[in-house]
Amino acid sequence: MLATAAAAIALLFLQQAPAEDIDWDAEFGVEEHERDPATGEFPVDAYERSNANAGAEPFANGRLAAAFGGQEGIRRIAERTVELSEADPRIAEIFVAHDTVRLKRTLSEQFCYLLGAGCNYTGRDMRATHDGLGVRKTDLNALVENLQQAMREAEVPFGAQNRLLSKLAPMSGDVVER
C-alpha cells in the first residue's frame, strides 16, 4: 500500500502542467456561435421558408386573432409560454442550449399565422425543428400546460384557446420522438 501511495505521488510530480497557449475549445471541437447583431439570434443552416412549415392551415379570418389580442397579444402569449417553459423543472433542460430569442419569434409567428392574424411563418417545419431533441409526450404535455397558462393570464376565452390547441395537436407526431 505504501508503494502504491509513493507511486501515485511520483506520478503527480511527473505530470506536466498543461500548456497555457492551447485553445481548449478548438482542441475539443467546441464551436462558438455569435448572435446576429440585428436579431439577437444564432445563425441556422439554410432551409426553405414557407408558411406550410407552420404545420397547419390558418383559420379563415382574423376574428379569432382578436380574442388573443391581435399580433401584439399573440407575441406576448408566445413569449410567456417560452418563459414559463424555461422555468418549468419538468422541461427546462430542453431549453437550456437553445436559441430562445429565435424560439420566441418563430413561435409567435406560428401562432399568428395559424390564428389568421396576418403574419408569415419563417421557421423550419416541426419535424426538422424538433429532430434530435428527444421530446417525450410528457414534455409536450408540460409545454401545452404552459401555453394554456399563458393564454389564461392573457384572458383568452376558453373556446378560443381550444381552437388554437386543435390546430397544434396534430403536430405532436412531428414533435414527439420517444
Question: What's the SSE blueprint?
Answer:
Blueprint (H helix, E strand, L loop, with lengths): L1 H13 L9 H4 L35 H5 L2 H18 L4 H5 L3 H15 L11 H5 L6 H17 L4 H11 L3 H4 L3
Helix pairs in contact: 4-6, 4-8
Describe this structure in words.
With 178 residues, the protein is mainly alpha-helical. The protein has a domain at 61-175: Globins (Globin-like), CATH 1.10.490.10. Helices cover 54% and strands 0% of the residues. The protein has helices at 2-14, 24-27, 63-67, 70-87, 92-96, 100-114, 126-130, 137-153, 158-168, 172-175. Helix 4 crosses helix 8 (137-153). The longest helix has 18 residues, at 70-87. The radius of gyration is 23 Å and the shape is elongated. The N and C termini lie far apart (49 Å). The mean pLDDT is 86.
Q: Spell out the CATH superfamily of one domain.
A: Globins
Number of helical segments?
A: 10
- What characteristic shape results from the CA principal axes? elongated
CATH class of one domain: Mainly Alpha
Mean pLDDT: 86
Topology, number of strands: 0
Please trace the helix and strand order, writing H or E for each element: HHHHHHHHHH
**Proportion of strand residues:** under 5%
Quick tags:
Globin-like; mainly alpha; 10 helices; single chain; 178 residues
Short description:
The chain contains 10 helices and no strands.
